Amino acid sequence: MTKSFFVLVPVIVLTVFHRQVEAKIHYCFGGKIQHVLITSNLPIDTPMMKLHCQSKNDDLGFHDIENYFTWEFCPNIIPKNTLFFCHLWWGNKQASFEVYNQEKFREVDSKHNWVASPDGIYYHSDVTVIVPVKKYDWSW
Fold first, then answer.
1. pTM over the 0.85 mark
2. What CA–CA distances, in Å, run from 64 to 23, 34, 61, 118?
C-alpha cells in the first residue's frame, strides 16, 4: 500500500465523524436545537453588563458579560411551551424579556441573537428576522 492511502483513510474517517457529530448537534428528537446568543455591544469604558437567564426547568445563573453569552437547548415536543427569559443589568439600567418563547417564535428559526446596545436590546434570527430589530428599551 502506498503512503497516501494511510494519510487518506484517517482524513475520510475524521470527515465522516465530523459530519455525524455536526448532524447530531443541529437536531433534537422532534425538531431543531435552538441556539440563543446574547451579545454586548456596549462601550468598553462603561460598566460590564450582567445577566441572569432561566426557564422553568433550567437556571443558567448570573454572569458578567464582556462579549457574549450563549447556550443551546432542545425545545419541548408536547406541549410546545419552552420559554427562556433573561434579566440584563448595565450600570443603572436594566431590561427583562423573553429570549425564546416556543409559542411565539417560528419553528424555522433556530438561532436567536440578542444584542445589548446603549439605546436598547435588538433581535435577529437566522431565517425570518435577518436585520436586527429593536425590541426593548432599557429601563431605569
1. no
2. 32, 23, 10, 17
